[in-house]
Amino acid sequence: MTEAARIAVIPGDGIGVEVTEATLHLCDLALARVGLPALSRDVIAAGAAYFRETGQDIQPDGETRAGQGEAIFLGAIGLPSVRHKDGTEISPHLRLRDLFGLYAGVRPVKAYPNAPQRLADPRAASLDLVILRESTEGLFYSAAVHGRAEVFGDDAVHDIMRITRPTTEKLHWFGFRLAEKRKARGGKGQLTCVDKSNVFTSQAFFRKIYDEIAPEFPKVTKGYAYIDAMALDLVRKPWEADVLVMENIFGDILSDLAGGLVGGMGMAACGEYGDDHALFQPAHGSAPDITGQDAANPLAAVLSGAMMLDYIADRRAEEAFADAAALIEAAVQAGFEANDLRPMEFGGDMGCRAMVSALETHLAEVSP
Ligand code: ATP
Question: Which of 13, 112, 155, 363 would disulfide-bridge 336, Cβ 3.0–4.6 Å?
């Protein structure tokens, strides 16, 4: 019998706790359907609430334990009322990215039937793209480890835009492979390098490395866009995009924009991949404004859970985990098609619990 997948779980703050519980429950149901045991969980306390209680942002052995699982699942971290003295957020998550080298942040953006389309053009119904956000350096380099920013008294602060060859090479390889994989599944197979290479030396370097790797992938369509023009095009014609690769802060901003195109942050799934570790989380925050009201949309987390099962399938070379992931994706698709998923986030009548119960029903019926 297959051994249960061991994952580290950081529910975190606010709605992170609710959507994590929903996700792991649905993952277990999907695993059971393909004859696999439920996930074995090591739950780690971390986040802003934990910091308020203890002065630490993660349990003393939390980082080590997070690295021991086959994957990490994180709900959400941060509370506006709990900050460092300089006003920045409590963020062990940024440190985990740094520690485990989780350079490739994959943020799929897909339109579902009956979910809100914020654009009137009918082509918005076919939206299916991925923001590939470098997640360890760029303009977040200084933020990953508190104190990395250079502070000159009360006169100036330097945050650093760091682009390194090893990370950028890995990122572009990852992007080209992802575009190739999507092409094999009937997608466009296109990787667009999104940067500001006309202004910043670091960004020109980012594009140069893209150009060096591009010839290795003759079947992938190449493209370039400046970040500002890309923001415009994501509103004007996002259906033309496939995989968009970019530096950390650009990806942070554009993934929120893209999440908005298909409804809201409650649809924004995310997987962060390194060489030996990966972390899965909804791209939204802890949403303190709706915490404890059973109002959260769990889909971003649930779809991140499916990405996690897919990753475990690759890591173990056990296809059944990918079948369980496909079941979750099919249940979400079927749920929207039947108009059975109507999250409050979109003005619907379903809170987190009702959404989970509708997904349970579809999960029992769909085939991968
Ligand atoms: P962070 O900086 O950690 O990304 P944030 O301050 O940008 O967080 P979020 O916590 O993501 O903000 O919330 C932004 C808005 O989106 C809030 O109004 C919140 O209620 C809403 N929101 C976020 N996630 C969800 C969700 N899963 N379901 C419903 N609404 C959500």
Answer: 112
